[in-house]
Amino acid sequence: MTRRLFVNRDGGARQPRRPGATELGGSTDRSMGRLTIILVGALVLAALGGALYLAYGNFPTPSTPVEKMLPDARFPK
Predict the structure, then answer these.
(1) Is the dihedral of CA 51, 55, 59, 64 positive or negative?
(2) How would you write the pLDDT of the chain (77 residues) with one tens digit per residue?
(3) What is the C-alpha end-to-end distance of the chain, expressed in Å?
(4) How far does Cα 22 stand from its chain's mean position?
(5) Can you tell me the distance from the alpha carbon of 54 to that of 50, in angstroms, rounded to the nearest whole number?
(6) Judging by beta carbons within 10 Å of its beta carbon (0-12, 13-18, 19+), is residue 2 exposed, middle or buried?
(7) Could you tell me if 25 and 2 are in contact, meaning their C-beta atoms sit under 8 angstroms apart?
């Protein structure tokens, strides 16, 4: 068992692979990991930007007054 998956070094001479055997320190596709990190980072930045927009955005308030007549029957005495 080699630890090349966990540390960035070779670990000595390679042993011949047996058919159907998996090796812990095999070559991994690092581009998929980078893509995942970039997508998660973009998602976090988008969520942070949306939260900041909602927190500090200057939203227009309705300028027309609202008047409603409530019947007295709705409020028992």
Answers:
(1) positive
(2) 555 555 555 555 555 555 655 555 545 567 888 999 999 999 999 999 999 999 999 888 878 888 888 888 778 76
(3) 83
(4) 31
(5) 6
(6) middle
(7) yes
Global pTM value: 0.45
Distance CA 26, CA 8 (A): 12
- In the chain, alpha helices (H): 30-56
Q: What is the dihedral of CA 10, 15, 16, 19, to 10 degrees?
A: -90
- In whole angstroms, give the CA distance from residue 64 to residue 41: 42
- How many whole angstroms separate alpha carbon 25 and alpha carbon 34? 19
Answer yes or no: are the C-beta atoms of 2 and 24 closer than 8 Å.
yes
